[in-house]
Amino acid sequence: MKQQILVPLAIVIAGLMVAGAVFLVKRPVAQTPEEVAEKVRSVDASDHVLGNPNAQVMLIEYSDLECPFCKDFHNTMHALMNEYGGSGKVAWTYRHFPLTQLHPKAAKEAEASECAAEIGGNDIFWRYIDRVYEVTPSSNGLDLEQLPIIAEELGLDRKRFEQCLSSGKHAKKVSASFDEAIALGGRGTPHTILMVGDSVVPLEGAQPLSAMRSAVEAVIAELSRTVAPSTQ
Q: CATH 3.40.50.2300: does it fit domain 2-227?
């Protein structure tokens, strides 16, 4: 089934690589979906998932909260989830990929989102990064003094949030997520992995909604075809 899904995916993805990303990291990258599949970490309880955690189609995004491409893509992904998330077949997992060479503040912002999640749970995590993307002008433009203000606006205990953030307790998780993205071939942000079972296809850059919709629909159609009972 793996090859049955990968073939139509590869055809669709070949026409998607039109959007921009910040190409920054010059390291060896995984060259094939099979190589990426061997390295990608399965979604687990440590992740932040919007939608059904057991969805057949999982979009794992590695992103930078100060990246202007990511800011645009964040809206695209919300629009995509509004269309497909309700079915339970498609979900979105957000992981961190702060490009600190360009955006030194991004890593601390990522830690802040983890503090929000620690205190308020998964829903607050998503509301927190939504708000960060909303208020930041991107390109390292957010005043870090806004981070506890955002937390307080969302109903979190400001003192507890500030203690969490100043402790740096989530820095290791953010750094590990960055390393994951590099190992998976991420050269810039956003870097997304479309995962269907043990099959994966990397998506580089801020793909437009039309391209993401086409990819998701192709996968869903192929899943329906492969599991449909034989009429012969």
A: no
